[in-house]
Design brief:
Belongs to the class-I pyridine nucleotide-disulfide oxidoreductase family. It comes from Enterococcus ureilyticus. Its cofactor is FAD. It contains 15 helices and 24 strands. It is α/β, with parallel strands linked by helices. The protein folds into 3 domains: 202 residues, 3-Layer(bba) Sandwich (FAD/NAD(P)-binding domain), CATH 3.50.50; 110 residues, FAD/NAD(P)-binding domain (3-Layer(bba) Sandwich), CATH 3.50.50.60; 99 residues, Enolase-like, domain 1 (2-Layer Sandwich), CATH 3.30.390.
Amino acid sequence: MKRFDVIIIGSGPGGMAAAYDLAAEGNEVAVVEADLWGGTCPNRGCDPKKVLYGAVEAKDKLAQLQNRGFSSVPKINWAELMDFKETFTKPVPTEQKKGLINSGIQTITGRAVFKDKQTILVESTAYQADKFILATGQRPAILDIPGKEYFATSTDFLAMKELPEKIAFVGGGYISLELANIANSCGSEVHLLHHNDRPLKGFDEPLTHELIGNLEQRGIYFHFNESAETITKQERQFKVELTSQGNLIVDRVFCATGRIPNLEDLGLEKIGVEYTLKGVNVNDHLQTTVETIYALGDCVQKKEPKLTPVSSFEGSYLAKLFTGSIQGAIDYPAIPTIIFSSPKLAQVGLTDSQMIANDNYEVKELDLSQWFTYKHLNESLVKAKIVSEKATGLLVGATVLGNEADQLINLFTLMINQKLTANKVNSMIMLSPTVASDLSYLY
């Protein structure tokens, strides 16, 4: 029976980070993958979505400059865009697997099932290890309603060869908003249903409302305090019956109401690994309730956002923990999050809503639309909220709504993690005029 120092179940970014770091330190490592090598992000997640969003960004910039240098705005050709997307996603599984093999990491294809605390079975072959890492990720959740078999998911959206004329998205989270924005920008009639009036829970509420208002102006129909009750097929279309007794007739219905961890059928129950529908229970060293088994990434129940960079951070942490270079609990830095929409909405650290009743912090609200950085591109909706600590002047949080929100939030993330004061930032010389050179006036 083949024995390893560490076996990692799942080949997404978190599992890969751990595998490469452990192998580099001389460990015998194996990675087990039951689906696509590379995991969700590069195959059917953030990377292909960003390729599609790139076309939306380009179109948005031209639209802002219509009659200011450009006489028209071209339409997005969905078929060509999807062909371009395929140039990124198609090579991923082969390249990811090849990279592991070239680094001396054994690749095992198939579904892993635990036989005991140190043994797994993959297609009836047994493998043992001193430690295991669960890095199995998540998959789209499907609402349990009559007609649920007609739901499509984000995976289906990112593989569509043709763009439907009318689409309904069920859910008010970031996946639903991002895909709805892409579909709308590419020419579909888009309806978004959400069971309450608060989409993008966790993001600054006033700026979220500004974003929703802008998306409504672009043509997205929002149906708040509405749920899909049933879905029925009507020839080549679908009828979605709503809680309000109304209905929608659309060509495709996408369920984007959350994601659930891939933990069933691993045999975790019989060896004592505790988990819920929200993920595996781990301690502050990412160790499960079984001493030989750890977990990282989206399959973990945690308060930190389930994002690719977080998974990679956790993978690197576990590699250091296993090799003895660190012994302490995992210590997360400030973690930025973003909605890639039109415009982008990004935040990091403490938010305005968390600080309203706290006298230790100061909240600065800014309309940046008249600043040269944005005005020269005729960008009309650009706002920021900056949260700083009164006693020290240190930045502790920020939310930005605008086309350059990702760039600005990354700079704010650096400032928070490095504890850079305003004086320290102002002592630096940045390229100008740029988002970075604006920092002197923002904070």
